Amino acid sequence: MTTTRLFCTTPRIQFGPRALEHVGREAARLGKTALIVTGRSSSTKNGSLERTRALLAAAGVAAVPFARVESDPSLDTVTEGAGLSKENNCDVLVALGGGSAMDAAKAISCLLANPGPLASLEGVTGLKQGPPVIAIPTTAGTGSEVTRVAVLTDTARKYKLLLVGETLMPAAAILDPELTASMPPKVAAATGMDALTHAIEAYVSKLATPLSDTLALAAIETIGANLAMAVAAPDNLHARAAMLYAQMQAGQAFSNASVGLVHAMSRPMGARYGVPHGAANAMLLPHVTAYNRPACPQRMARIAVALGRCIDGMDLGEASRQAAIALTELAAELPLPRTLGDVGVPTGDLADMAREAAENGSSRVNPRRPSPEEIASIYHELA
């Protein structure tokens, strides 16, 4: 490491069973009227939305629900949420849900402080600080509660738009493993593989640092040991808590070291064909890991060990190949799609998707810089 680097994360993090009970006190520190940004059904069905409203009310904080966030939130949804926040003079945002709800809340805050439209804010440095966000994840995957990134979908352009800046970092995060107990197995599997992708890509990134390495390796080890159990036994609170903690570590790692080729390739799949982000990452991760191996064999061998592989007696080449093998075996245990056909991606579009992925900024910090033809070849492995 030859240059000075800044490490950023959420300044206040409440973690543990019943941590949600802190939401009222956290919100009261920051404002008087909270916009609750959440999904369209799950938080209502499982009671977490009503419970959050009650906890806010008990702390003297008025609540305005915005239960309109879809998977991979659109620019229109964020704009609608910002309008509702303005109408009700909300001065704090509470994000309750998975990565979509948290990214939407961060983007709403950003839009309230910076002149839009949202599409014009991509790539802008020095974004102004909007209302503070309290992030409460109910899935164990995105790590958005500790990142300075918000990912949105521009449905008109079929394009994934990224907002990046320190002002997008939540003011507080509340991680309550009990809130993840209602996650269906397929969601737990996809979000868990998303977290594993974050950790691995941060660890092999050209921007990795000793601090991000420590977090990434810890996350890889914990996810490798707990993901299958968290999916198979939703009532195993120990496994679900371990996954929630590890995905936070993975979020802290990639927010500071970036992601890589898996994300560059998964974004066109989501923007063009609505493939859920975690499912796309899970399909790509073993294949991209195998592609990256020659560029960072020592790190791949360390990943293999973190995933529980014994590499004693192996030379570096054989040891480094164990990472992709371990990932393939882990993915096979989970209820996830395996091929592009399973998720409705036609092979005729792969060349255009490959060009888009090659131009994505995440490809530039990947340990091995891919050509469009190499990316297309990886896509074809999934056909």
TrEMBL record:
Coiled-coil ranges (or none): none
Residues covered by the Fe-containing alcohol dehydrogenase-like C-terminal domain: 189-381
Domain of life, per lineage: Bacteria
UniProt cross-references to PROSITE patterns, sorted A to Z: ADH_IRON_1
GO molecular function: alcohol dehydrogenase (NAD+) activity; metal ion binding
InterPro entries: ADH_Fe/GldA, ADH_Fe_C, ADH_Fe_CS, Alcohol_dehydrogenase_Fe
Region (Disordered): 356-375
SUPFAM superfamilies given in the database record: Dehydroquinate synthase-like
Domain Alcohol dehydrogenase iron-type/glycerol dehydrogenase GldA: 11-177
Entry cofactors: Fe cation
Keywords linked to the UniProt accession: NAD, Oxidoreductase
Pfam annotation, one family: ADH_Fe_C
Family, similarity comment: Belongs to the iron-containing alcohol dehydrogenase family.
Record PANTHER family: ALCOHOL DEHYDROGENASE, ALCOHOL DEHYDROGENASE 4
Name assigned to this protein: Iron-containing alcohol dehydrogenase
Provenance organism: Solidesulfovibrio fructosivorans JJ]
